[in-house]
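#structure-requests
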Amino acid sequence: MRLPAAHAVAFVAGAAAVLGFSPCDFFPATLAALALLIHLWMRAPTARAAFLAGWLFGLGFFLAGVSWVFVSLHRFGAMPAPVAAFATVGFCAFLALFPALAGWAQAKIRGPEARAGAGLLAIPPLWVLAEWLRGVILTGFPWLSVGTAAIDSPLAGYVPLGGSYLVSLLTVAAAALLWTIAAHRSRWFAAAGFAAIGITGAALQELQWTSPSGKPVAVSLLQGNVPQDLKFDPARYQRTLDTYGRLAEASRARLIVLPETALPRFLDLVDPRYIEQLKAIALRNGGDLLLGVPRRGAQGAYFNSVVSLGVSPPALYDKSHLVPFGEFVPPGFGWVVRSLLHIPMADFARGSVAQRPLAVAGERVAVNICYEDAYGAEILGQLPEATLLVNVSNVAWFGDSLAPGQHLQIARMRALETGRMHLTATNTGITAAIGADGRLLARLPQFTEGRLDVDAEGRSGATPYVQAGDWPALLLCALLVFVAYLRRSR
């Protein structure tokens, strides 16, 4: 394949890989796209060519998959469209460096002798190590981990064992086996390996790693559907309060959950009578209410928080993993927020990473805010103590884009990893209840006001992933890379 054609194929394959993620949920597209990338890597004449193929694949992948960054910057952050477009492309170009690095590294391991076996063995673990780096460098951006796309495939059976990185490893390994079959190399051996991965994953799905803890608790998840461009408008404030007051009043659930920053004003500036009204509703129901609201702490610091009101002792959770530019300003970049972005409350303080689950409504609830649930290892800090996972979000920042569906798919992965129900309350959607097996149990339509009533089953016990985290999968990847290097040397 000539280089210009190969470049175009890499870019298009990257964009097609996004079809495996929500809302499309067509996992075979991701598998086929990865197999095509592996073909380009195995045919690349130099490490530089492999780097470029990986970068173009990544550029297509992230431009198609996280194009919603432009919506956030331009429509709701008031950044001029040309600048927002440039920033979005630049961000995607940076993210594309990680698959490019994996391509370069496998070419180096394959060596000038073009040892196909060594290169093929190295590709899956190198891809995962690049994903891991992407999730930690500069606060991390683990969005669109390819393992997440496998949530509805037989590979989902491996999720409780090793989390999304283990499933990413197996996803790319399956793609490598598909390439091997298509390339007429050890066809029967590759087909047997491909089948074994799927059959084993399907068998693992029958295992129950956690068990019910007590009786189910009635929960109401509130979706106020407050437009993002009006959320912080003082003229809209009272209407917002009325909306959530009305939705809460109609609930008889023992646990009521409001979205992130449902009240767009510091807690100490909210009319105390309104807070007492919400508390009275929780007391009437014999339970508690979780309220997303910004709050001010000591020395002028302020936090993106969830506070509890009701029969249980007061408790709170402060968001600890903040979004760069949206929730905190990286050192040296204050000029960006002052001159290009107009985002209210853009410099939150970071909450403690050692916070415990909130004891509310007879459950121990591990709260996380917005895209914190994209970081599987960070959720583990409150487990196995927690019996439920609750995420509160304001995905209205991304409009009618791919982001809400992708975020819901990520939440399903967290539920399956931990063996816990995952409840998510959002401003404009997608408000949903997810079972401990990762299945979507119920949801509200996007961009509608409503209340989702569910019976939430608390669970106890620990999956292997809860006990060990990401390290077994990452160490396995490092070992496989080492073995591939030894094979090349021989």
